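Researcher: Structure for this, please.
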Amino acid sequence: MYLSPKVRLNRMFSDSGRCLDVAIDHGVFNEYSFLDGLEDVEAVVNKLVAAGPDAIQMNYGQSDLLQRIKGKNKPALVMRVDVGNPYNPQTHKYMFNRLQNEEEPILEALRMDAACVVVNLLLLPDEPELHHQTISNISRVRGMCDKYGMPLMIEPLVMQTNSSRGGYQVDGDKNKLVPLVRQARELGADIIKADPTDNPEDYHEVIMAARCPVLVRGGGKADLQSVLERSYAFLQQGAKGLVYGRNVYQHPNPSQVVKAFMALIHAAATPAQAWDIYNDQLLTTES
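Model: Predicted structure, token format:
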């Protein structure tokens, strides 16, 4: 008899029904800039566990650092089960997004007692085969998740070509994002990790399309005060939490940042209150 997906989801979502998932799975994408702040992964994991987010998003080769920590009061494990090359500064002649284990795609997540697995749904300009690959990945993973009671988080990513920076950049156009979120839900997502819309006031359309918990994806590192303000706006539109990586682990004080986001998500703090929490903790740490 296998677990219901809801049993595992209870590890991620607290009594508030919301979740902060800190993503540190960036190393699998073979991009140097993602590694800034992740050089000592064990130290990062220890700091995050002490700070107490609801979940940490990791790859199989990192997950032992979390799961070997003793005690029941630690973040849930969210495991990425795919890998691709759309995040590099340069575009590639051949774009791919493949499952890390083609034969048994969620085997490692089961072995490491993950609470959830995550996989991409990509839509890039002039790359229909890449979109097809990710749909095929989801179809395979979905069947295994149903069989073993593993929740599936789908990450729908609309990207645009950006000649000024090189590579594919996130596209927050709601007319592209909402249909892809709807596709993710109808492919069987239990949770959706979705990009922010350009206008935060449009995000309720993403929520309606999803019909399941939506966690807002963070993207590149930005000014913390502005990130808190935008995060608050998306939560007000109905998002159930955040999946932030570089805005946490590339910050000089990731533990304090986690506390600020947790207050925003679980204690209904305003951006100003969350900023004060961050600064109060920073002063305490320095004193």
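Researcher: Any notable elements?
Model: The domain at 5-286 is CATH 3.20.20.70 (TIM Barrel). The radius of gyration is 18 Å.
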